[in-house]
What does this fold into?
Amino acid sequence: MAASFIRLYEENPDPRKITQIVNVLRGGGLIIYPSDTIYGLGCDIFNQKAVDKVRRIKNVNDKKMDLAFVCYDLSHLSVYAKNVSTPVFKLMKKTLPGPYTFILNASSKVPKILKVKKKKVGIRIPNNRIPREIVKELGNPIVTTSLHDDDQILEYATDPELIYEQYKNQVDLIIDGGYGDNQASTILDYSGEELEIIRQGKGEINNFL
It folds into this structure.
C-alpha cells in the first residue's frame, strides 16, 4: 500500500494531522518530514523494527549508521547524553532550535534504544514547527537520518512530490511541507576534548570558533 501524503504548513500545523502522524509513528511506521534544512526519514526511537527499517532503506551497516535524535527542546537532554559541559549546554540553548546537529557522549540508554553499541549521539532541534510538534505530541524523540537523492548532481531530495514518487512504497507517510533546502545541518562534535566540525552545513559556525 502506498504511503499517505499529507500537506502541512509550518506556520500553523494542523493538530489533527499531527495526531495522525503520531499514530503512524506509534504503530511502528516510517515518516518522511520537512525540517529547517533538508527532508528527513524518521521513526519512533523506541520501535526497534522501525529503526531497523530505516537502516535497511539507507542500506548501511548497523554499526556504521549515524542516527540523530530529533527533540522538541533540551528538557530531556540528560536522558540521552552525558557529561555535557555548561559552556556547551549554553551554546545549545543559544543556537537551538536551528540548523545544527550536536554530537555528544551518549547516555547508557542510547545503546539499549538503538541495539547498537554507540558511544555518541546526535541531538537535533530543527527550527521548524512541523517536526517539533510531532515529537512533542509523541512524547519522545524520533530517530532521523538525511534523505539523500539518487541524482548525482543534487545531493538531497527537495521536492515533496518527487520524494513521494521515490519513497511511497518504502515508508508509511510523507509530509509535504513545501520545498526543502539542499543544504544539511552543520554537525558539531563535542564528545571529545575539543570541538570537531564534522560537516559545515547551513548553520553558521562563527559562534563556535
In short: The two ends are 49 Å apart (CA to CA).
